[in-house]
């Protein structure tokens, strides 16, 4: 029987990690604060984001068949179904199944299928390493570092493009008494990605009774999941925190001001905008290249935290905290 009191262990599809960083790990995986004065930063200095141009087979085939560009909403529907499949994979089981397939097809001299199975195998190993071993995607320790220290009590949290909702739940664990509104215009995100998110996954947060740590689960967070285009929301300025994870980099520059504005529109005065985007590092370029069929259905950029900060700063945000964790940049800002 698994010792669930352990602080970190591997489940078939993901890692559980209730540890805090040691000082050494912190120095390796979390870098916060670099720019002191954003008014002195220019696009000439920081350059432009890197556009990921390798797209999925599914998108290419759709466009060839239909003779037009894949509409953005449909591209998100493809992405969410494709990405979700990987989150629910039993990785050790899939690896062993694939090994048998590679050998079996090669013995039958079905070389094309054997090579396809090898490619799947490579992707599975990469996924196992990035998501399950390194925990780079959910990165609970990094997210907790990024989200700590906000001056909020029982906050109302709005999560834009919420997908499975992970980061809002991590925030809610850290700030007891939170209530969450998740918004995504793909119903699959509510009905499957959020619904299938493991109820046993432990989110480490604060115990309001003792001030110590406490483990929370999905069912502990009062959550309203709204299926809507963000552009059609009509809330008042009623949220303490507006959050997005992997949203800004999917919009070309002409739309960036509007996306920044989405984060400001429903914030209470003094509320926090929290955004993260994937980092422009060589490892991420390799990842999005090898995982193109799984991940690349929509427009996508990789950016540095300086580029991300400049998009926010020049669109009226005051940056309180910026930096990066394993695979994402993170910024906490207020309206200027
Ligand atoms: C890249 S995902 C966020 C990354 C997420 N952490 C994940 O694991 O997939 C962005 C999400 O935003 C949603 N989205 C994009 N544009 C939207 C819009 N205008 N209104 C509502 N949801 C939107 C997509 O459906 C998608 O689920």
UniProtKB/TrEMBL annotation:
InterPro entries in alphabetical order: SAM-dependent_MTases_sf (IPR029063)
Q: Which UniProt keywords apply?
A: Methyltransferase, Transferase
Per UniProt, what is one Pfam family of this protein?
A: Methyltransf_23
Protein origin, superkingdom: Bacteria
Q: Which GO terms describe its molecular function?
A: methyltransferase activity
Does this entry carry the keyword Methyltransferase? Answer: yes
- List GO BP terms, alphabetically: methylation
Keyword presence, Thylakoid: no
Fetch the CDD domains from UniProt: AdoMet_MTases
State the name under which the record lists this protein.
Answer: Methyltransferase type 11
- What's the source species for this entry? Rossellomorea marisflavi
